Amino acid sequence: MEKFSLDEERVKQTLENYKRIKDNVLETALKAGRNENDVRLMCVTKTVEPEYINPVLDAGADLIGENRVQEYLGKKDALHLEGVEKHLIGHLQTNKVKQIVGQVDMIESVDSIKLAGEISKQSEKNGITTNILVEVNVGKEDSKSGIFLEGLEELLCEIAELPSIKIKGLMTIPPICSEQEARKHFETMHKSFIDIKDKRIDNIDMEILSMGMSGDYEAAVAEGSNIVRIGSAIFGARKYF
């Protein structure tokens, strides 16, 4: 097995990046008239080794997001996760649900009644309630998962009837586009978020609007996001194996 070699300069840069992004998220929130605790910074750890994640956790990061079930399960025991909230943010196949239920605090990428039903089933077996976000395909892109806005409320109401699962809000990834176009997508999402929240549907708590990543988080915060998912801007360009 190849011996892992820690890059001290990378650790230093990662910590500098984390502090800069954290400060910028706060500044952007305040400029948008939000309170300082209104927006949470999620550190997205896809393809990042624990040795580079732990310094950020030790520096105070309290929310991480992983895309892949197997990757997360393979490295979670090496992470300093005490007091840290864990979200699965990548596409989840129904055959992987059994492995991840109970291992994370929230699944952000639920986009069908079939997937929600499996999460409900496995959660009930484990005697727990799993918090979820419903993923919206705001740009109607064929290459992305997520429910179109037109079908969102119907899906939410169907999921809300299931046991052992709790809807906590919405998540989206807009198309790659200009900042102006991105802001329009984020504005549309925020409007839907507020509209559904105002309806006070049983078992649906519109508490979280997760939108904005490394390239567009400032626009997302300005338009109402309260979780931004930042990976490469903290940890550097991803390495794909």
Low-pLDDT residue intervals, each spanning 5 or more residues = none
Order of helices and strands: HEHEHEHEHEHEHEHEH
- Summed over residues and divided by their number, the pLDDT gives a mean of 95
In DSSP terms (H or I, runs of 4 or more residues), the helix count works out at: 9
Q: How are the strands of the biggest sheet laid out side by side?
A: 7-6-5-4-3-2-1-8
N- and C-termini, Cα separation: 15 Å
| Biggest pleated sheet | 8 strands, parallel
Estimated structural class: alpha/beta
Helix content: 40-55%
Rg over C-alpha atoms, rounded to the nearest angstrom: 18 Å
Beta-strand residue percentage = 15-25%
The general outline is globular
Summarize this entry quickly.
The protein has nine helices and eight strands. Helix 1 (8-31) crosses helix 2 (50-58).
Essential attributes:
8 strands; 241 residues; 41% helix; single chain
Describe the structure.
- With 241 residues, the protein is of the alpha/beta class.
- It is 41% helix and 18% strand.
- The chain has an 8-stranded parallel sheet.
- Helix 1 packs across helix 2 (50-58).
Give the topology, please.
Elements: H1 8-31, E1 40-44, H2 50-58, E2 63-66, H3 69-75, E3 85-88, H4 97-100, E4 106-110, H5 113-126, E5 130-136, H6 152-160, E6 165-172, H7 179-199, E7 204-210, H8 217-222, E8 227-230, H9 232-235
